[in-house]
Amino acid sequence: MALQWTPYTLVLLLVGGLLTAFAVSLRYLGREDGMPGAKLGGSLMLAGGAWVFCFVAQLSSTTLAAKLLWRVLTTAAILSLVLVWLAYVCWYTARSEWLSRRAFGLCSLVPASLLAVAAVPAARRSLFADAELLRVGSFVVLDAAYAPLFFGYVVVGYALFAASLLLLVAAAIGSRGILRWQLAVLLSFAMLPGSAVVLDLLGYAPTPGLDFGPLSVAVTAVAGAFSVTRFGWLDLTPIARDQVFRAIVDAVVVVDADGRVVDLNRQAERIAGTSAAAAVGRRLPDLIPELASPLDARDATDEPARSEVSIATPDGRRVFDLQLSSVGDAVDDRDGYALILHDITTRKAAEERVERRNRTVERMLRVVNDLTAAHTVEAVFQRAVEGGHEMFGPDACRIAVVEGDRFVPVASAGDDHDDPSPQRIGSGFAGTTYRSGDPVVVDDLTDVRGASALDTGSSRPYRSLLSAPIGDHGVVQLLSTDSGAFDEDDREMIALFTSHVETAVDRAETEAELRDERDRLEEFASVVAHDLRNPLTIASGRLELLADAEDAPSEHVEPLRTALDRMESIITDILRLARQGDAIGEVETVDLSACVDDAWRSVDTDAARLRRADDLGTVRADRGRLQQLFENLFRNCVEHGSTNNRRESAGDTVEHGSTESRPKSGDSVDHGSTASHSDDAAPSVTVRVGPLDRATGFYVADDGPGIPPDRRDHVFEYGHSSTADGTGIGLAVVERIVRAHGWEITVGESADGGARFDVVVE
Question: What is the pTM of this model?
Answer without folding.
Answer: 0.43
